[in-house]
Automatic annotation (TrEMBL):
Matches recorded under Gene3D superfamilies: 3.40.50.360
Origin superkingdom: Bacteria
Family classification: Belongs to the WrbA family.
SUPFAM superfamilies with a match to the protein in the record: Flavoproteins (SSF52218)
Keyword set, alphabetical order: Flavoprotein, FMN, Oxidoreductase
Encoding gene, per UniProt annotation: wrbA
Alphabetical list of Pfam families matching this protein: FMN_red
GO cellular component labels: membrane
Keyword Protease: no
Domain Flavodoxin-like: from-to ranges: 6-192
Entry protein name: Flavoprotein WrbA
């Protein structure tokens, strides 16, 4: 049986969302999936990025580690797990631009039936982590993705995260995700891979 294919396109500026993305990838890999981890690119130039301490340096380092997601990645995937920091209670413009660029695949119906899920991080407590995840549910529905939330289907969910997806609060970038939050992200990757396999995987042979 061929491996389930999971794409994780994310945006991260100060590594919190990146850490969650890597944990989601670990969970999907543990479930036997093939994973592509991709970082979407900035929409502004270096002159703007230099106004925020560390932004240009972090972006340069992460872009060297991760390829940018492409339409070919999306078409390849059985499941897409989006990752974003919160921007004023909603999705980051960088990730939204990538989603908005999928109109060609959407028009051809090539996204219908793929699995969709989302995770994210915020800088401050009550900074919009749940509203941000829910804001991505709408475009996922328009794209024709089958949305897979986390619910409370794993013990990790009773310690951290939300039923909508893995989350983290960085407290002005002073904290990285802890083991409880990473466990939720790994569960998300595993859950998405397992659901995608059940929908898209070839049936296993049954002994006579």
């Amino acid at each position: 049986m061929s491996k389930t294919k999971v794409l994780i396109p994310f945006y991260s500026r100060n590594h919190s969302t990146e850490a969650l993305a890597r944990a989601v990838a670990e969970g999907a890999l543990a479930a036997g999936a093939e994973v592509r981890l991709r970082r979407v690119r900035e929409l502004v130039g270096p002159e703007v990025m230099r106004q925020v301490p560390g932004w240009l340096e972090n972006a340069t380092a992460m872009n060297a580690k991760y390829e940018a997601p492409t339409e070919a990645d999306v078409e390849w995937a059985d499941a897409i797990v989006f990752g974003t920091p919160t921007r004023f209670g909603s999705i980051s413009s960088e990730l939204k631009a990538f989603i908005d660029g999928l109109g060609g695949l959407w028009f051809q119906g090539k996204l219908n039936g793929k699995i969709g899920s989302v995770f994210g991080s915020t800088s401050s407590m009550h900074g919009g982590n749940e509203s941000t995840l829910l804001s991505i549910y709408a475009p996922m529905a328009h794209l024709g993705l089958i949305i897979v939330p986390l619910g409370y289907a794993d013990a990790a969910m009773f310690k951290a995260g939300t039923p909508y997806g893995a989350t983290h609060v960085s407290r002005q970038d002073s904290l990285m995700p802890d083991e409880d939050q990473l466990a939720v992200a790994r569960f998300q990757g595993r859950r998405v891979a397992e659901v995608a396999r059940s929908l898209h995987g070839a049936p296993e042979a049954v002994a006579a």
